[in-house]
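HUMAN: Forgive my ignorance: could you write out one protein's sequence and backbone structure tokens?

ASSISTANT:
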Amino acid sequence: MKFETFKPGRWQQRLQYKSFEPVPVNHDWQWEDPQINVLLESANRALGELNAFSLIVPDVDLFIEMHVVKEAQTSSRIEGTNTGIDEVLLPEEQIKPERRDDWREVRNYIDAVNYAIAELRNLPLSNRLLRQAHAILLRGVRGEHKLPGEFRTSQNWIGGSSLADAAFIPPHHENVPELMGDLEKFWHNTSATVPHLIRLAISHYQFETVHPFLDGNGRIGRLLIPLYLVSNGLLAKPSLYLSDFFERNRGSYYDALTRVRLSGDLIHWVRFFLQGVAETSAKGRDTFGKILGLRTDVEQRILTLGKRAPNAHTALNILYRSPVLAAADLGRQIGVSVPTAHALVKDLIRLEILTEITGQGRDRLYAFDAYLDMFLEPPAQGDATSLTSPAH
């Protein structure tokens, strides 16, 4: 199948609406557009550099956790869940009651990512794995009644308040199992000579077009990206997440997907996707570089603590995973008494490593600001969205 002559599918008349029935994707793909080759080379190079960092950074898993937190917060924000990354790191009892539903949705996404990545050791990338992650995503939150862990058995839509005014209506639910089966075969079709990033771009488009779940399609579709990269050995660790790029370019993202469905313009979508991989990989590489610099700096500071330095070093490793916590929690994880933990926190404040962030006399929380700031960069304002309502 050539990109230039791609026919994306057909509109099928239903009783009161038309659903879009996409064509299968499990076959060879070719293209003549030279810019795709240039972008593919750039994306592969940047991805390789990012992967190299994840291989050489000592204790890299400490830092991967914050990448997952950032992805969960950003991916959920695209779907209308408004929880700041610093808020995500707080325990539930610290969250205002009216904001706990959003907090739980983001925490569920973190659990879903961590589960799916770990499960790749036991399962190949598959619909089964995506359904398991989906069940975790909707556990005990607003979408818990929308068939968690199961493909939909009714029609859904994107944009608008109903089928009557929807911006896009995915395929009929009876066709979802066959289309998702075809997509799974495409992931593992070794006879199809398609570069991985091209295969992934097509897979993300097809997943979002099929929209196989009643809720959570955007988040699971974005989770598919690191799962594919890790399962195929392009990344040793799940360090690439495109949600930040998609959010900053939200209008362009939805427009690129829509152009494929309406006019078969797969070239535009693949270019956009590859650009996202290249930019996000470069940004991730730079973040790892900053982390290494910060780590060297703070470890030099704690050497001044003498006999207390080992506990401070252990505390730092905890803070790389959870950069916002209470003194008692820090002490519990290190295995020291509460008074010793408070003394350690005072040392870290004096060394300008920790900052007290609540201003309270009790139940104080402390933040590893220099590290947290690397993940708190406000996203650039992208253009207006083409599909303004969350997916149903």
